[in-house]
Design brief:
By secondary structure, the protein is of the alpha+beta class. It has 2 domains: 21-49; 64-200, no CATH class. The chain contains 4 helices and 6 strands. It has helices at residues 10-49, 92-105, 139-142, 148-163; strands at 64-73, 78-87, 121-126, 131-136, 171-176, 179-180. Strands 3-4-5-6 form a 4-stranded mixed β-sheet. A two-stranded antiparallel ribbon has the order 1-2. Strand 3 (121-126) and strand 4 form a beta hairpin. It is elongated, with a radius of gyration of 38 Å. The N and C termini lie far apart (129 Å).
């Protein structure tokens, strides 16, 4: 039986064969391009996330500020400042809290702490009018030695430490156990906000 001749133009069949040979190579080229792109992406990501060992690492440092803490001056009837470095925290109220806790630890020199022993700072908050509300435990009042001069020094030891260090706030309200009190020891009106008193500073 005579063999059938393949249909179609011989030139067309040759072109189809060449095209069929090119297809696998095209796939290989595309695959290589994809691999290169993936490699470049991973290398850039790796370099960003994990720096080489010879790259100097950034060390985290906490900013500090120097504040004046106001204590009673034993030689005069007034206040005297003692400087202390404290950390600059994430919010103003936290930084003020830290300065007051440093104040309550007492002086390092020959000054006198005007805040009664065992007094605790319960809370510090700042309202929209720039008034700092400072809440202390009952020891601030119940353990106070009394006397108008001593009470005045206690109040402005707190008030001046806040207002003369932190210009962002303008007044201070003193609370005891979360509530407003008439006085700490019977003399100084604590129902109204206080402003700084520079005349007491020696």
């Amino acid at each position: 039986m005579p063999q059938k001749k393949p249909k179609g133009n011989p030139k067309t069949r040759a072109k189809k064969k060449k095209a069929s040979r090119k297809v696998p190579w095209l796939k290989v080229v595309v695959f290589v391009i994809i691999l290169v792109c993936v490699f470049v992406y991973l290398r850039e990501r790796y370099d960003t996330t994990y720096p080489p060992s010879d790259t100097p690492k950034k060390t985290s440092s906490v900013d500090t500020i120097t504040v004046d803490l106001y204590y009673a001056d034993p030689e005069r009837d007034g206040l005297k400042a003692e400087q202390r470095d404290i950390s600059l925290l994430s919010s103003l109220s936290h930084t003020i809290s830290q300065s007051l806790r440093e104040l309550m630890k007492g002086p390092r020199g020959n000054l006198i702490n005007a805040i009664p022993k065992n007094t605790k700072l319960e809370d510090v908050r700042i309202d929209n009018d720039g008034v700092v509300w400072v809440d202390f435990s009952s020891h601030l009042s119940s353990a106070h030695p009394g006397g108008s001069s001593a009470e005045l020094i206690t109040v402005y030891s707190i008030v001046n430490t806040i207002l003369l260090n932190f210009k962002e706030v303008k007044q201070v309200r003193i609370l005891i156990d979360g509530a407003t009190v008439d006085t700490l020891a019977g003399h100084i009106d604590c129902t109204k906000p206080f402003v700084a008193n520079r005349r007491l500073i020696q």
